[in-house]
Structures are given as C-alpha cells and as structure tokens.
Amino acid sequence: MSKGTPIVERFAPSPTGLLHLGHAYSAITAFQGARGGRFLLRIEDIDFNRSKPAFETQIFDDLHWLGIEWEQPVLRQSDRKPAYEAALKTLWDQNLIYPCECTRRDISIASAPQEGHETLLGPDGVIYPGTCRHKTRPEDYGKSALRLDMHQLNEAEFHFTDLERGQTTFSKQQAIDSIGDVVLARKDIGISYHLAVVLDDAFQGVTHVTRGADLFEATRIHVILQRILGLPTPIYRHHNLIRDDAGKRLAKRDDAKSIKSYREAGYSPSDLRKLMSLGS
Ligand code: GLU
User: Does the keyword DNA-binding apply (predicted)?
Assistant: First the structure.
C-alpha cells in the first residue's frame, strides 16, 4: 500500500448466530479505524447449511444500534461463487491444489499419535498427513474437496504486519510443518473460508483487517494465498479476545453475551462500549 492510499476497513460477520461482545469490539474498532476512509460490511454466508436470513437481519440491526454505518450495497459471499470457482481453476492449472477424498476418520487414523509423537494441530485443525497428495492427478477435480499443496509453493518466506504484534515472518518449511495442506474447497460448499476471505478482501480493496486474535494463526494461510494469487496483503490488527467472567472466550453459542440480549436487558450502546473498555 502506498503512502496516502485511503484506508478501507471491513467487518465480515457470518450470519450463523447472534453477534456477541467480541464482534461488537471488532466492528467498532474497524469502524473507528476507517475514519476518513471507507468502512465496508461483508456478509460471510458461504456456509449455506448454517447461515440464516434472521441472523443477517439481526446483524444489521445490532450494528445500526451500535452507531455503525457502512457503504451500500453489502457484499454477500453467496453472490461470489463464480469468482471463487475461477480462482480454484487458476490454482488447479498451476498444480497448486489436489483433490482429497479423505474423511475426518481417515485423517484422524492416519495422524493418530505414535509413540513419542503427538497429533499436530495447525490453524485449520489436525495437520493433514498428505495421503491424497501422492495420488495420480485426475483430469479434472469434479466435486472433491481440494487441498493446497504447500510443497509446491515458490516462495521461501512470507511476511505480514500486525498493528498489535509487529512484523511476522515465516518460512515455507514452517508452513508445511505447522499448517499443512489446508482445504481450499470444502466438498459440501465448494469453497473454504480462507480462500473466500482472501479473494473478497482483495476484490473490495480492503487495506486494513481488524479481527479477533483467534484468527492470527490463520492469517499465515491468507498471506500464502495472497502471494500465490498475486494479491496485496492488507495490514492486520488482531485484537485480544473479549472473555466472559470466567475467562472463557465468547462463542456464538453463548447467547447470554449476545448484543441482542444486552439490548433486551436495557443496556445502551455506551454501556456496552464501557463494558468493552472502548472509548465513545
Ligand atoms: N466471518 C468470520 C467470522 O465471523 C470473520 C472473518 C474475518 O474477519 O476474516 O468469524
């Protein structure tokens, strides 16, 4: 990003549950970070099994109530399928992805802890043992899940900047060892969060990504995808997670901490800001 480029921030919730205090924190911080620039809202509804229109309506309502304004029209991932398919085709033509037919059970058996070795977990769950990487490549990938072949990466080193943690550098070998061949297209929905988010941030010209620290490790996957697709890397800010009174991180399942339930209990937007230690 060159000096003087206007800031483009975004908030990208999934309409799979109620927004909670952690989402409010991300949305307000991103909105404030965009002052003088642009603020976008993106609805991440690619997981059609779990996304519900009622949650989307509630997201708009909660954000308005918090005093957040965004540009229209709102981008929905469900409208972006052709762009996702085109990117997968490009990666396939470059030999960077391969079909995978393994079930969760196959993967857990193949990566079961051996004596002296624990099962390795990466930002996307159990690190894939590579079973299908060694199979003969079919003519076409059909409807299988597709995995990124980390061994095929051209670059030896990757970098990104986080406003809270500074510069992070990692090598291709670290990506192979600690991330593994992540799924870029799930069999059920034909795409993954990682690829969609990278394509959408670039498509919308996002310069700054503000989100919870739970996604910090996944950012390494996003940076790899940006390099192989020739896309810019935004500046990231992964903020600390808001925790409940017992110190547990908030999840969508915890309806008790949802913005909706605070509203129903009579809290004002400024009460919520105080609760999150955010200035007005
Ligand atoms: N849609 C994701 C979520 O709701 C956030 C993705 C992101 O900010 O990159 O957890």
Answer: no
Which residue ranges have their beta carbon within 6 Å of ligand 1? 12-14, 44, 197, 211, 215
Domain count, the chain: 2
What average pLDDT score do residues 129-134 get?
93
Question: Does pTM top 0.85 for this prediction?
Answer: yes
Select from 77, 197, 250 the residue to mutate for testing ligand 1; criterion: most ligand atoms less than 8 Å from CB: 197
Residue 153 to residue 182: CA distance in whole angstroms: 13
**Residues 17 and 62 reside in one and the same domain:** yes
pLDDT in tens, 14-64: 999 999 999 999 999 999 999 889 999 999 999 999 999 999 999 999 999
Pair 49, 12 in one domain: yes
- 68 and 108 in a single domain? The answer is no
Strand order in the sheet with 8-11: 75-76, 38-43, 8-11, 208-212, 235-239, 157-162, 166-171
Could you list the residue range(s) of the whole structural domain that residue 119 is in? 81-205+216-233
